[in-house]
Structure formats: structure tokens, C-alpha cells
Amino acid sequence: MRRSMVKTASRSASPEGEQGFWPSYADMMSSFALILFFLMLLSYIQNLVTGNNLQSTKEALADSETQLTLVQTQLDETQANVEDAKAELALVLGDLEEAKLLQKEQEEKILSQTEYISAANEELTEMRNQMQTIAVLRLSILEQMRESMESVLGNRGTVTIGENGSIILSESVLFDLGSYEIKENSEAVLNKLIDVFTEFLSDEENAKYVDSIVISGHTDDIGSDIDNRALSTNRANSVLNYLLSGSNAKLSRYAEYFCAAGYGETRPVASNSTDEGRAENRRIEISMILKDETVLEIVNEYLKLDLADSDVVRSALASSGN
User: Fold this and answer.
1) How far apart are CA 100 and CA 119, in angstroms?
2) How far is the C-alpha of 176 from the C-alpha of 174, rounded, in Å?
3) Is residue 108 one of the residues assigned to a domain?
4) Do 286 and 214 form a contact (C-beta atoms < 8 A)?
5) Within a domain: residue 266?
6) In total, how many domains does the chain have?
7) What is the DSSP string of 112-160?
8) What backbone phi and psi angles, to 5 degrees, belong to 265?
């Protein structure tokens, strides 16, 4: 063994041995260069892969930025839509509040109109009652006059109440045919009229409704128009003069209420073709004319109501009509 080692060493130390060492070193260097090349190749590949990855990352980042920009745009649009929605909601809330206020105003108006209608109904009822009072009062005084005259005459056929509410005295009660001189036996009838009118007009509550008391004379168609007008006028004046001068002229203080008129044959109440008809046409009528102002005053009192509109008036009138 020792011999072998010595032999090897000797071989190494020989020139032949030196030539075997350098090839091994060259191989080693080649291997080292190969390894270095491989490392460089690996580094290149790695750099290449890293560069590709970086490019991909840049592209992905660009895509992300694009997506982010798109999302930001969508977000801005959404924000704008939200702002628009808020504005619309504010408008809707404003309209709702306005509608509530309007509804409240309408409810208050309806309540006010209801109160006006109620007041109007009360006014209409009162006005109707006053009108009825006037009508009853007028009829009452005429009925009193008729009954007073009948109590004197004892003949219901010679004193009547016409369709127009006038007291009608037949010619025969007061005058002879063709005359306008009052018969003596008819003075008692006229004295009754004086008493009734005096009592009636002395009551201010009654007198305020009276505009005038008209004594009108009428004839049949026998004779000329001129003569008939003159006769009817003279007869009316004769009655008027007696009413204001008889019974110690106690009715004269109410003279402003009385007037006389003659209509001749122009206002017949029956046919002039018969004696009976002509007798009806020869008459004295006593009419009580009520003050238009009084009636208008009653109406005006109603119209003073501060009604909201014409519908309220129509509703009130319709309601009162029921």
C-alpha cells in the first residue's frame, strides 16, 4: 500500500502528471463558466418573467384605474341622482305641506260656510216670518174694515175683499146712481172706517209697513169716458174727504197715508153686458199699499250676511226652500 501511494505521488510529480492537472482545471473552469452562464440565463429568464409580470401588473393597474374611473363616474352620477332625488323629495314634501295647508284652509272655509249657511237659514226664516207678518197684518186690517162695515150695514154682499186684497164697497152703499154725494145713511159706515184706520195707524209697528191707503173710484161703461173718469174721481175724493174730516177729523193726522184716484170704466171686475155686471163695476175700492222700502229693508238685512260666494247663497236659498 505504501508502495502504491509512493508510486502515485511519483506519478504526480512527473511531467506526465502536470499535464493531467491542467485539463482538470480547465474542466472545472468550464463547469464554472457553464454554471455562471446558467445562472445568468436563469437571471435573464427571471428578469424576463418579472418584466412580463410587471407589464401584466401595469396593464392590470391600468385596467383597475379605468375601472376605478368608471366606478367614480358611476358614483358621481349616482350622487347626482341622489341629489336630484333629494330635491324632488323636498318638492314633494313642500307640495304635501302646501296640500295640508290648503286642506286646512278648505276645512276652515267649509266650516265658515256652514256657519254662514246656518246664519242665512236663520235670517231667511226671520225674513219669511216678517213677510208673513206683513201679509197677515194687511189681511187683518182689511178684514177688520170689512167686518166693521158689515156690522153697520148688516149686508155681507155689499162689502167684499177682492182678489187683490182690497176692500170693495158697492156703489149703492155710499152713493145714488150717477151721484158723488155721500148718502147720509152711509156716514156710519165711513165712521167705522175712520175708527179702524185710526186705531191701526196709531200703532207705529203697523204704520211702518204702510206706504199709502188708496181710495179708488170705478164705474160701468155707460156714458162717456170723460164723464166716467170724472164721476169715479169725484166719488173717490168724496170718500177721502169724509175720512179725513169726519169724527172730529181724528184721522187727519194720518192724512199723508191717504190718496184718491178715479179709473172710470177702465178696470171692470165683471162684464158690462148685464145689469148685475155693471152693478159690480160701480164700486169704491180701498187698497192698502205696503212700503217697498220696508220689504227691501228686510231683504237687505239678509243680504248683509258676509257670505263667501254665490254658491253659499244658492245653498242657503235651497235649504230654506226645503
Assistant:
1) 28
2) 7
3) no
4) yes
5) yes
6) 1
7) HHHHHHHHHHHHHHHHHHHHHHHHHHHHHHHHHHHHHHHHHH--GGGEE
8) -95, 10
Do residues 143 and 161 lie in contact, with contact meaning Cβ atoms separated by under 8 Å?
yes
* C-alpha to C-alpha distances, 93 to 80, 97, 209, nearest whole angstrom: 19, 6, 62
- Cα–Cα dist 237/227, whole Å: 15
Helix (H) / strand (E) element for 260: namely strand 258-262
CATH number, domain with residue 209 = 3.30.1330.60
Conformation bin of residue 225: beta by default, left when phi > 0, alpha when psi is -120 to 50: alpha
* Grid coordinates belonging to 312: 253659499
d(CA 53, CA 45): 12
Lookup: cell for 220: 160701468
What range defines the domain where residue 270 resides?
A: 155-290
pLDDT tens digit sequence for 185-237? 888 888 988 988 898 889 888 888 888 999 999 999 999 999 999 999 999 99
Nearest to 191 by CA among 181, 203, 202, 199: 199
In a domain, 320, yes or no: no
- Report the alpha-carbon distance of residue 67 to residue 309 in Å, rounded: 67
* Lowest-confidence segment of 2-6, 40-44, 249-253, 280-284 by average pLDDT: 2-6
- Where do we find the cell 468550464? 30
* Whole-number percent of the chain with pLDDT over 70: 74
Name the pTM for this structure.
Answer: 0.52
Grid cell in block for residue 280:
159690480
CB neighbourhood size of 150 (10 A): 17
What DSSP state is assigned to residue 182? Answer: P
Question: String of b and e for 5-22 (b: at least 16 CB within 10 Å)?
Answer: eeeeeeeeeeeeeeeeee
In the block, which residue shows the cell 150695514? 153
Give the Å distances, CA to CA, from 306 to 130, 300, 303: 21, 12, 8
SS3 state of residue 178: coil
